[in-house]
Amino acid sequence: MADLRINFAGIKCPNPFWLASAPPTNSGAQIHKAFEAGWGGAVWKTIGAPVLNVSNRYGAWHYGRQRMLAINNVELISDRPIEINLHEIAEVKRAWPDRAVIISAMVEAKPEAWRDIVRLIEDTGADGIELNYGCPHGMSERGMGSAVGQVPEYCEQITRWVMDVASIPVIMKLTPNITNIVLPARAGVAAGASALSLINTINSIVGVNLDTLELTPSIGGKGGHGGYAGPAVKPIALNMLAELGKDEIVANSGLPISGMGGIATWQDAAQFLLLGASSLQVCTAVMHYGYRLIEDLCDGLSNWMDEKGFKTIADVTGKSLHRVSEFKDFDLSFRAVARINPDKCIKCNLCYVACNDTAHQCIDLVSPQGDLVSPLSYDVRSNGKHDAVETRPQPVVRDEDCVGCRLCYNVCPVDECIEMIELPSGRESITWSQLSEQQPVITEDWEEMKKYRDRVGIHIH
Amino acid sequence: MESGCKDIGEALKEQLPPLTPNAASIEADRCLYCYDAPCTHACPTHIDIPRFIKKIATNNLRGSAETIFAANLLGATCARVCPVQELCEGACVLGSDHKPIAIGRLQRYAMDHAKQTGGYPVVKAAPTGRKIAVIGSGPAGLSCAGELAKLGHAVTVYEKRDLAGGLSTYGIIALREPVEVALEEVRMIEGLGVEIKTGIELGKDISIAELQAKFDGVVLSVGLGRTPRLGIQGEDAIIDGLEFIESSKSGIIIDIGRNVIVIGAGNTAVDCATIAKRLGAERVTMVYRRTDREMTCYEHEYDFARKEGIEFRFLSQPSRVLIDGGLPVALECLRVELGEPDSSGRPSPIYVEGSEFVLTADQIVKAVGQIKPAVSSLLGLETKKGFIAVDDGFQTSVEGIYAIGDCIRSRGAASTVMAVQDGKLAAMTIHHKLAQQPLTTGVV
Predict the structure, then answer these.
(1) For the whole model, what pTM was predicted?
(2) Residue at A1 is within a domain
(3) Contact across the interface for B39 and A382, Cβ inside 8 Å
């Protein structure tokens, strides 16, 4: 069985899964319950400046019958009196010495305010501090949260104030509401932060109610942007995580990264690890299904690690980072085509319509007699299941025209029915970088490009 | 005979409840939205099924119902009575390794919504000044009348019975389709401007000459007749299956025997047996001269009958009804052996001499098909296997007289949805034909 223990910037815990700073970590009672369920750590819901909340705080994005692919919220940081939070933090830490108890903090941009909050947190015995530079709503209007995270200089300044006084590890949490995620991360490195975490929530309006024409959710008739999180944001989070992993300054700093943004399953978790995370935070999935999710997060991850021969979380961390590349370095001669397995195909013909309407028109319909047929070509008097099933054509890919776009693979509802098969292109391996270095005229002039294509045998219909 | 009757309304109430909004939404979302979908091909009226289901998924129920009506005006009946296992659902791509989409029940959901909101089709075409008579108000006639009305024609439907709707009203057991659904469909067709005159029979209350003089076209959708005679002794004590079903739908208490025999093995026979069982018969036996392999009822109907506790006596040919005091007490049968295939492709029954045996019964119902339409000889129309012969455009051997529905079904299984499609296609043919002719009253 794989060893799931981690030591994240000095913070130790039995598994890499922490509850993210959010409603699931609002109180000591909740975190006791979460730790009983098996969570490795918890980032306490942000404490700091005094706030008041509103109701109808959470919106959600559903797709079809799948509820809560993402949540959107305008809830602020903890609205419980700070002494109560501090008291409960101390209690939880005493009761759970082996778990990670990290306190998220956000106060006004004044050195004394940060100094005070750091001291209060350290007095509880907590394992670490997470600097909340991410909340995109409410707090940002008061100059906190993402108002800090969006300006690398502010991030650096405040983190320096904290590092000056902190004696426990400090994690700087990044907002994704920024053009280049690398810049605030570098600010964290410059300020001497112990670790980074990302992503916080994304600015969003989740919808408009079609009966009332009010925003969803409606706060007494008004609404506004809220922080967006959940499975739907995972690809954005993975990209930002990889960007940090590929940035020389951030990567060379050796700062560990706590990854989050849409982790709902152990597969998601493994992907965050592979792209460089060494601790993982979870929120929306738990808000959907409860703390019990931790069981399969650990169990599934552990089984997968055993299968793959990974012994520790550190073995997994960053394992796929070397594969993160850029378009200019992709092999232009790599060729893959789609292949539809007729034994698995249920003939829904979704691949056919997707390819022919919106992609590269390289799937044909072939009748059981082997003839090419058009869709909707049966006689109006033909009916019944036998006619419909026995005359139903089979979608077939024309290899020579398939550009390997992979759209059919993505729309196919049957697992392993469509495969992308590598075929020899007959061309020498070359990247766009190499091409523009070696033969720049081809990359600048369409006529030259045409000649080049003829020369190497690239035919685009 | 003892009356073992239960509350008909309760015993024969519609078997399947409507889908709840949640169930409909979950089911609709399961649909893959196939392209050029096999379910649509399999549907004789070619309803764009993925489209109407997608509209349920997006909560566009009005659009969903409109999609169904565009292909099939009798969507509410078809949603209930179609043998979906043989048609749309039987062709669903999810059926191969999972469970087909419940297309029939989703269609009913959309149709129920149309009924609740009055979201019925409307006539958008300008009046053409053409008049069409439709004889018979069953599914074929209503479909044809409605489609013609939508195209701007003035349509009058003549119905010999007191109520319109044909077999939907009188011949489908309430378990599958309550009378009210059929009558609501009649009202919907009337809402398109179709005039329905009940209690008028062709050849009795109105002549074909009168119709030909008054209308630009006449459409016969007269269906088929009663159950044919078996030609056995004591046959008058046997109840006609269609009448048996009809009485169960009328709401009038009917007498049900304790020991009921149903002769026949088609879908109507199963319906009769179901009624008898549900209304309190202790024992219901279906008697059929061939075996379960040759039964003409759908497989799912056979399964249903067995689950209802109905018994079967195969390889038995009724030969005599035994009567005591004017009432049946038993059915005498001959044992049957199966021989070479006959013209229907099924093994021919060979009656074994001297093999008589007796089945006790205090009520006997026969459902062994329907007699061919009498109207063909009345009007001197050419026939095919006894059915009215028509060309590809549903015209009979007489110019301007068309025929649709069960009365022309010389090939394949008669069904409501086939009748609806006939009506729709005939309406198109008539419409195109009339468009090419100058506007003068008289048969085309």
Answers:
(1) 0.92
(2) no
(3) no
